[in-house]
Amino acid sequence: SVLMYYGEEYMESDLMQEMGTSPELGTNPNAMKEFAEEAGFKAEIKEGLTLEDLEKAVAADIPVTVAIQA
Question: What pTM was computed for the model?
Answer without folding.
Answer: 0.82
